[in-house]
Design a protein that fits this description.
This protein has 638 residues and is an alpha+beta fold. It is built from 24 helices and 13 strands. Its EC number is 3.6.4.13.
């Protein structure tokens, strides 16, 4: 037995396997076969280079002899690196970036083969990141169809894409030419206007081959005819247009569907031949960005990490999120620091639950500073509830290989030859939220001031004295009052919409749209109550149970939780008292007497005090107004 061989080594009784030869070209296939050979024959590490070097021929042997003469190559990893640097394909010198840039230009089968080829070069990518890259590289119409069905794995996304392609025909995705993003309304300018063009498709070797292109008009007619025939077939069978279930009064699709945003206003169809080449990086960037639900709420999960940093000498909370495709910055922070915004063509920002928000601005070259590291990226302004800045896949992909431990909250990467380690901080929000609502004193509107002028109250004559100056009236007071929907707590409203199957909350057609911050705040509360899950869906059974109780969701959750503690009767009493106006009557000039009256029912907490009053009322006889309790001048009988 040779020195260095394991003591328990036993020769394989199987057929002899020859070590593969290598004389140049892409070394990946040879490396895979060599590693299989090493495992098959249980070759020790100190023997691998010696065995592999004997199979090198031609140019590969010359390179090995040259490099080994200058510095001995002792380890297999060193030999692999040497061959990859000298013979590897240029596009795979940075395999992570090369994978992120994949775009479909041919059939799904060709795209799947190219995707598999690129994936085989990267390591330690989580499934949801691979899924995001695969879907993002699909043609726009196929991308929308696949997204609607919410695949959880790359395999599911591939299967869905193949089904949609076979169902809609090979011309799917060629019905409309791409347009420039800066056209004026009513004008349409195709990116390319060549007559005899060919559509570029990826070859299995990674290059490009050309096939005859189809007319945009013909493709459009084919797609329209296909949809018309399918729609008529569904109408004849009584099926829903969106799903395959029977359609009838009150029908609701089991699989939710979402409407994606149009990129621009209405445009004319331009009858031009189309080139199937992929869009420029700028147009692709604005097709559809994705942000995770956790990034909006600022929650730490198994694939996110929070850091403290600074931006323009202001401390900011940074969330590194592998579930967001791009980088985002809080709109409130942009306004506070006066960060310059640049207008871009309108695009959609899709949240994990399917909500799509319009966005048409970008903040370019914004620098965020971490200890020992400066990050300069482009950011989309977005309403963020729990963080100031979100760094997504757009930034992570630029780091090439990243070693991340989400449990211990740290990540290690190399940049410009220097090693960096970012240590996360425990889950926190950019500001402490007390969950206590309060009323803020604010100026009334000009309309309210005019309505009250010349009378006291609403129906009786009298005098009205203005307690504000003319300057205040002109410069500070708003013209109209803020609609109630924009001032109210949206928690109850949103949970009712969720219960009705309306998931696109941020894109819902409100009569008077509340601010995104108010909606995000309501979503934060529902998420903390465990009424919504990670996908912003109602949880089962808690979420649906809370939605069925016609009370504030906080009180409803308290009632449901009381059964486990055996205090349902007391909690229901407290909930009933909290759901009405104050039980105390305020009278002027009798503060001492009021305090004495309250002390007779005093308990350790305000809620227990109200429970004591209610019990006393019940013991004296419910609804009997001549009892000792309801005779108290400071209590209302209601």
């Amino acid at each position: 037995m040779q020195p260095g061989w394991p003591q328990n080594f036993t020769r394989r009784p199987y057929a002899k396997v020859d070590f593969p030869k290598f004389d140049g070209g892409d070394p990946r296939g040879w490396i895979l076969k060599a590693e299989k050979y090493f495992r098959y024959y249980q070759v020790p590490d100190n023997q691998k280079v010696e065995i592999a070097s004997m199979s090198l021929e031609g140019e590969a042997l010359d390179v090995f002899a040259w490099m080994n003469g200058e510095e001995s190559i002792l380890y297999w990893e060193e030999l692999v690196k040497l061959l990859q640097e000298n013979f590897g394909l240029a596009e795979f010198q940075n395999p992570d970036e090369y994978l992120c840039n994949i775009r479909q230009s041919g059939s799904i089968q060709e795209y799947r083969q190219e995707f598999s080829r690129r994936v085989s070069r990267v390591h330690d990518w989580p499934e949801h990141c691979l899924l995001g890259v695969f879907i993002n590289g699909l043609k726009e119409d196929l991308k929308a169809d696949v997204r609607i069905h919410k695949p959880r794995t790359v395999y599911q996304a591939m299967s869905l894409a193949l089904q949609f392609e076979s169902k809609l025909g090979p011309n799917k995705g060629l019905s409309k030419p791409p347009y420039l993003s800066n056209n004026r309304p009513g004008q349409s300018t195709p990116l390319t206007q060549h007559r005899d063009t060919k559509a570029a498709t990826l070859s299995p070797q990674g290059g490009y081959t050309t096939t005859a292109g189809h007319s945009a008009t013909a493709a459009s007619v084919t797609a329209n005819r296909s949809w018309e025939s399918e729609r008529q077939l569904r109408r004849d069978k009584g099926l829903c247009f969106r799903c395959n279930e029977k359609f009838g009064p009150g029908h609701r699709c089991k699989t939710p569907t979402f409407s994606l945003l149009e990129l621009t206003d209405s445009r004319e169809e331009v009858k031009q031949e189309e080139v199937g080449s992929e869009l420029s990086g700028e147009e692709n960037l604005h097709d559809m960005a994705e942000i995770s639900f956790h990034a909006i709420l600022g929650k730490s999960t198994g694939a996110t990490m929070k850091l403290r940093g600074s931006l323009l000498n202001r401390q900011v909370l940074i969330l590194i999120d592998s579930g967001s495709t791009h980088n985002f910055i809080s709109t409130s922070l942009v306004e506070e620091l006066g960060i310059k915004e640049e207008g871009v063509s309108t695009f959609g920002v899709e949240i994990e639950n399917g909500d799509v928000i319009r966005c048409n601005k970008i903040c370019r070259d914004v620098s965020v500073t971490l200890p020992g590291l400066k990050i300069t990226q482009d950011y989309f302004p977005f309403s963020l509830g729990g963080a100031d800045v979100v760094l997504g896949i757009k930034w992570l992909a630029s780091l090439n290989t990243v070693q991340a431990n989400w449990k211990e909250m740290f990540m290690i990467f190399y940049l410009n030859g220097k090693r960096y380690k970012l240590q996360g901080i425990p889950s926190t929000s950019k500001q402490e939220i007390s969950d206590i609502e309060n009323l803020i004193v604010a100026p009334i509107s000009k309309a309210s001031a005019r309505q009250r002028a010349g009378r006291a109250g609403r129906v009786r004559p009298g005098k009205c004295f203005r307690l504000y100056t003319e300057e205040c009236f002109i410069n500070e007071m708003p013209s109209q009052g803020i609609p109630e929907i924009q001032r109210s707590n949206l928690v109850s409203c949103i949970i009712q919409l969720k219960a009705l199957g309306i998931d696109n909350i941020l894109g819902f057609d409100w009569p008077a749209s509340p601010s995104p911050e108010a909606m995000i705040r309501a979503l934060e509360i529902l998420y903390s109550l465990e009424v919504l899950d990670d996908d912003a869906k109602l949880t089962s059974p808690t979420g649906f149970q809370v939605a069925e109780i016609p009370m504030d969701p906080m009180i409803s959750k308290m009632i449901l939780a009381s059964s486990a503690s055996g205090c349902s009767e007391e909690i229901i009493t407290i909930s009933a008292v909290l759901s009405v106006q104050s039980i105390w009557i305020s009278l002027r000039g009798v503060q001492k007497e009021m305090d004495e009256a309250k002390s007779r029912f005093a308990a350790a907490e305000d809620l227990l005090t109200k429970q004591t009053i209610h019990k006393g009322h019940e013991s004296a006889g419910l609804y009997i107004l001549d009892t000792s309790i309801t005779k108290d001048p400071f209590l209302t009988s209601r």
